[in-house]
Specification:
The chain is of the alpha+beta class. Helices cover 35% and strands 17% of the residues. The chain has 5 helices and 5 strands, in the order ββαβββαααα. It has a 5-stranded mixed sheet, with helices on both faces. A hairpin with a 2-residue loop joins strand 3 and strand 4 (56-59). The longest helix has 17 residues, at 141-157. The N and C termini lie far apart (49 Å). It binds FE2/S2 (inorganic) cluster (2 copies). Residues 39-42, 44-49, 59, 61 line the site of one FE2/S2 (inorganic) cluster.
């Protein structure tokens, strides 16, 4: 049994039919075609599937797709601005904060959620903000520094 679902996806309206038990990660990847949220654990333990719903951080693997009805869903795709990198993406590149890159979309979304609500975070607040995101490669230090750099770049631009 499929149910109709409409929501905004990175600023664009989408309409689809989903199973009542389909999670948002599956709907985004298999039906919307947005492969940026990643499937890591499927159990809420890794943060690879992180998205913003109405500006708040959510784990798409634990979110029923139907709960996105009428809401705004943002994924890593929303950070794109033509050929220009988002300050967070630039900082991750400059700091070599991605190695295999599997955690990176979730890390960037968690970091965006933090900087949107707190443009001037402390190191402790950065660590807390990405505490739900597992990275097996970087040791986290470069990621933390990149997020602090991006916050500084945003302040300099303001
Ligand atoms: S895939 Fe959603 S938290 Fe791991
Ligand atoms: S860069 Fe490989 S898991 Fe984070």
């Amino acid at each position: 049994m499929k149910v109709p679902l409409q929501f905004r996806h990175n600023g664009r309206d989408v309409a689809l039919f989903v199973g009542a038990g389909t999670n948002l990660l599956t709907a985004l990847r298999d039906q919307v075609g947005d492969m940026t949220p990643k499937f890591g654990c499927g159990q809420g333990g890794c943060g690879a599937c992180s998205v913003l719903i109405d500006g708040e951080l959510h784990l798409a693997c634990l979110t029923l797709a139907v709960s996105a009805e009428g809401r705004s869903v943002e994924t890593l795709e929303s950070l794109k601005d033509g050929p220009r990198l988002h300050p967070l993406q630039q900082a991750f590149m400059d700091r070599f904060a991605a190695q295999c890159g599997y955690c990176t979309p979730g890390m960037l979304i968690a970091a965006k959620a933090l900087l949107d609500r707190n443009p001037n975070p402390s190191r402790t607040e950065v660590v807390e903000a990405i505490s739900g995101n597992i990275c097996r490669c970087t040791g986290y230090e470069a990621i933390i520094e990149a997020i602090l750099d991006a916050a500084g770049a945003n302040r300099a631009r303001a």
